Amino acid sequence: MAKREYSYYPGCSSQKKASADNFMRSANAMCDALDITLKEIDDWNCCGASIGYAGGGEIPRLSLSARNIALSKQQHGDADIIAPCAACWIATKEAEERVEHNPRVREGINAALAEIGLKVEPAQMPKTRHMVEMLVEDIGLDTIANGKKKGLEGLTIAGYVGCQTNRPFGIAGESFENPKYLDNMVEAVGAKAVDRYAKKVACCSGALMFSEPEKGQALVRDIIEAAYDGGADMIVTPCQLCQMNVESYQTDINKRFGTKFNIPVVYYTQLIAVAYGKSAEEAGLDGQIIKATKLEALAGK
Fold first, then answer.
1. Nearest in space to 163 (alpha carbons), one of 201, 207, 206, 132
2. E strand residue ranges, the chain
3. DSSP secondary-structure letter at 263?
4. What is the model's pTM?
């Protein structure tokens, strides 16, 4: 397998002891197995995520991501920026597009960046891509399937894409309403993907889970019920916020709605890491609130 190198913007949630610490560990294990080198952008900053839209204006919000782009260009040249977090990916990609196509916005961003000796220029910025784009387009599902050391046969998995990795940008060539890349990834490592998963691209409620928990929990209830309806043993997602909302609120949802949910919610990186022979710990399975016992058992074989 040819070695590949990328600039890497991990995002806040993937940091050690943060909410998606186990994602980062599984991503490192997966990339090690696939001979992918992620060169982290030194001194990267938060993309702003939801709070960036709450106040302060458009230019300050976009300048946060533009700074990361400028740092990546300075440190890693034209290497593509890989962002594993949906919010980080959207924010960085939006900044890239606004710099390319809006001179007024570009002028404002560069006025801000000039204060720290940085600048972004149209047609000279590295391309920003989600990690699943890189896996599907550069590595390829056939390569992932052919290189696995153990299949995940016996697992039935609901591929929960969520809304942010599908809109507004989406993955090239995929349907907005029924994207297949996650299902195809599940099948590539030997598991069975739930067919016609009704809530595949439904919103997990995002930050609404904190401000209006009853509404947020109702949305997640429907996502989980649809997975159970499809016979799923677990849910897999590419989004750190989706993973947290769908996994960690199941106890609260059970109390509120009288359900009995107890379904593991894992990352695609964890599936691939296990399929490539990594241990449960290396795949970050020890970081689950609801233990993915069937996946752990396969990792131990």
1. 201
2. 4-8, 36-40, 81-83, 128-130, 156-159, 192-193, 234-237, 265-267
3. -
4. 0.94
CA dist 86 and 26 (Å) reads 17
Over the stretch 196-253, which tens digit does the pLDDT of each residue have? 999 999 999 988 899 999 999 999 999 999 999 999 999 999 999 999 999 999 999 9
2.60.40.10, 3.40.50.11810, 3.40.190.10, 2.30.30.140: which CATH number matches 149-299? 3.40.50.11810
Question: Which CATH number is 4-131's, of 3.40.50.360, 3.30.365.10, 1.20.1050.140, 3.90.1150.10?
Answer: 1.20.1050.140
Tell me the DSSP string of 155-166: -EEEE---STTT
Structure tokens at 110: 């560069």
**What is the longest distance spanned by two Cα atoms in the chain?**
58
The answer to whether 185 and 141 are in contact (CB under 8 A) is yes
CA distance 69 to 121: 10
Residue 35 near residue 108, CB atoms below 8 Å: no
